[in-house]
Specification:
It is built from 1 helix and 10 strands; from the N terminus they run H-E-E-E-E-E-E-E-E-E-E. It is α+β, with helices and mostly antiparallel strands. An 8-stranded antiparallel barrel has the order 1-2-3-4-5-6-7-9.
Length: 182
């Protein structure tokens, strides 16, 4: 008898809660379907090519969470150093991930110096991002190099990003209705 009473009471409560949430259901659905997340943090990596280079920098990601076609945009800046050949480099770049599972596409502007000669160039990159890891490969396009300029042309890079700042925005901004003057 008690179990039948509990079933009836829980059914009545479920109907009441459902009726109360119907008005805010559309707003809740919009809130859950339109989330933007901004993440910032340092990254540590290793770049391999003809030479091994250690990388340190910071990255900021803008992620739109959606059921269909979620996207991630990211910008980064950092430096790298080749201890064996005394080569210093600075990189600034951007990458884009157009869907949930797939490749990242981007490019870097870079500066390299061996403290005698310097070079500036561009590097198109393509990669794969999974959780904290980002594996990229690319090619440094730069002017003709002197003989003692030990830097990678074709490279593969593995970075570990550590998120230490996260901002979640549910985008519930009300659209202003246009008023017409009669």
């Amino acid at each position: 008898m008690l179990s039948k009473l509990l079933i009836v009471v829980s059914f009545i409560l479920a109907v009441q809660v459902s009726a109360q949430m119907n008005g805010s259901n559309a707003q809740l659905r919009r809130r859950l379907l339109n989330i933007e997340i901004t993440k910032t943090g340092p990254y540590f990596g290793i770049q391999r090519g003809e030479y091994t280079v250690l990388e340190i920098g910071v990255e900021r990601q803008w992620k739109k969470v959606r059921i269909r076609k979620p996207t991630i945009h990211a910008a980064h800046a950092g430096f790298n150093y080749n201890f064996k050949y005394n080569m210093l480099g600075y990189d600034m770049g951007y990458w884009y991930k157009p869907n949930r599972i797939g490749l990242t596409y981007g490019g870097n502007i870079f500066f390299r110096t061996n403290f005698d000669d310097t070079r500036v160039g561009l590097a198109p990159v393509i990669g794969f991002k999974f959780s904290l890891l980002h594996l990229q490969t690319g090619y440094h396009i730069m002017a003709r190099l002197p003989d003692n300029f030990e830097t990678n042309k074709f490279f593969i890079s593995l970075r570990i990003g550590i998120i230490n700042d996260r901002d979640v925005d549910f985008n519930l901004r009300k659209k202003k209705k246009k008023e017409t003057i009669l």
